[in-house]
Amino acid sequence: MPAEVGTIPTGASLDALVRRTRLPNDRRTPAAARALVRSVLEETGLVSLLNEALLLTTELSTNAVVHANTELEIEVTADAGGLTVTVTDFAPGPVEQLAVGPKNESPDIGEVAERGRGLLLVDHFASRWGTVHEGDGKGVWFRLDQRSGSGAAQIRLPQHGESPSLGALTGLLRSGNDRHTDEGLADLAADLLSRLARLTGAAGGVVRLDRGDGMGRQLLARYGRAPRDNADTIRVPLDVHRPYSGELELDASPVGYAQALATMVAERFSLHLENDRLRRADVRRQTWITFLAEASELLAQSLDVNLTMALIPQLVVPRLGQWCAVHTTDAWGRLQLAAATHAEESQLADLHSSLAETGPESILARLEEASRLGTQVMFGTPSEGYAVPLVARGTRLGTLAVGRHPKHRHDADEVAVLEDVARRAALAIDNARIHDERRTVARTLQASLLPPALPHVEGIGFAAEYVPTGSEVGGDFYDVVPFGTDQHLVVVGDVSGKGVQAATVTGLVRDVIRILVDDGKAMSEILWRVNRTLVQRGGGRYCTLAMASVTRKGTSLGVCLHLAGHDRAVLVRADGKTSFVGEGGTALGLLETITSPDVVVTLDPGDSLIFYTDGVTERRRGRELFGSNRLREASAPLAGYPADVMAARLRSTTINFSVEEPRDDIAILVLRNDA
């Protein structure tokens, strides 16, 4: 007969054993409650009630932990007639009077509240049960009577069919605690489905699941024959969060306990699916974070506009789509295709054709809409995808379009990642453009500090090579200034630092030298005045300078060389012998007075004199410097070559010394007697 629902039994005998304890809101609380009940039963000799008592205690304590979220009070009373267990929580709100089980003639158990599903077992096995509300606490109690001659509490049978055994129910509810893989979930679903079918007498059943990955609803498990679409079929949706969805179908009539057990099994399996969803979401989130970090690093390494735009589609495909296209906005606001790629190379031509099509429903129209509105726009067939505007520092630079097959649409996480990629790509493009503009400005300014061309003089060869570095103007410069009759002044200098200030000082030094040469000043006076100018107006910057006057003396060239803190020049004789010439002096701009001894060198026909800046000698390969001795060794085989060939070869040798980008500007000037 059905369990009696009423008030908690009172008037226990004086020999009754009472145990009461308060337990924290913790996942280990059900185990502690079971331990308390077990100890009372063993102490009073009521071990025949052990299985039922532990099962019902677990259900009540678990329900309280999950739904009340407060401490629990467990009271266990044992007497000669049986056992009474009361589980009380302290959550606010009224006591829910839950009625479950076949209490009337209707074969359908009707709607069962969420916590009432746990009470289904209480109603099934308890002799009596009910609810209590005392002070701040409210709870549920159950009574298991000791039946004479049976050794266990009498198990009641429902009206419809044979009731499942305690062992079967326990196995059903405790199945699969550690299923963390796809195979594990499929095995768990198959196990639960087979147990449920045997308990309800169903001919078969299926569990279908859609993970929201574009594959649709897939068959996860099947038992027996597939349920037929008729009234004798139980369908229970799986209680999971998006993008997961699914259902459990059972080929059984929804009467008696079949519907409730199917619902209970669906809920138990939904918990495992939810864990699987959260685990996959966490793994996927970590994957996306790693992807964005790697994409940012790759984009940051490129400061070339065209290379950056070509790199963006390669990062996106195939991770976020089958194809990707980057369009940039021109001066009139029109979109121009900058780069595109497709996962299948054979489809690239068709992709370019699709992107070139015009019309209100074309992809280009959607891209223009995204660029105009500054928001993402979705486009449909023949390829599902999104157009995301490229915006950096408030400026619209173009669009990023990504498409994929209609069966594999982008989910919310992918769209969010796509927007993040678009933001990072826009910043990378803008940074590359700024860098390119700065480099153009720097090279234009640097070119203005150098002579457009060296003079062509009969019998004298002048040649120079200059290698700028980075996007900033360097302080290296060279010049050849004619003066007097058949005389020239050769200047190679290096102003400390980089940037606009260094360029200003470089221009100042160069202009002062030219003015003083035009005034016919001697080299010693030129150096003295340049030094005074730098001390007064150089802003703390100094300059090293190699200055040489070149005079024709028959077939030879007379060279008077002054070094103001500059490296010695390399003398290359026609026969290949080399040496360093010049005596060190004081760098300009550091002291009020300077010393600059002069050295006279005679260049016979075929002889050369090589001037250079420290960008050559300080060229690095790891910890190793190129050095002046290596420059001298590289110059010897060049004896006999024209000045321009010597300068070009020395430039190539210096650059090829290391795979690294030059850290300092490189300037080389060659003077050769071509008589």
From TrEMBL:
Superkingdom of this protein's organism: Bacteria
One Pfam short name: SpoIIE
Stored PANTHER family: STAGE II SPORULATION PROTEIN E, STAGE II SPORULATION PROTEIN E-RELATED
Database matches in InterPro entries: Bact_Sigma-Reg, GAF-like_dom_sf, HATPase_C_sf, HATPase_dom, PPM-type-like_dom_sf, PPM-type_phosphatase-like_dom
Hydrolase recorded as keyword: yes
Gene3D superfamilies per the UniProt record, alphabetical: 3.30.450.40, Histidine kinase-like ATPase, C-terminal domain (3.30.565.10), PPM-type phosphatase domain (3.60.40.10)
Taxon lineage: Bacteria, Bacillati, Actinomycetota, Actinomycetes, Micromonosporales
Domain named PPM-type phosphatase: residues: 457-673
Keyword Iron applies: no
GO molecular function: phosphatase activity
Key words, A-Z: Hydrolase
Protein name: Putative magnesium/manganese-dependent protein phosphatase
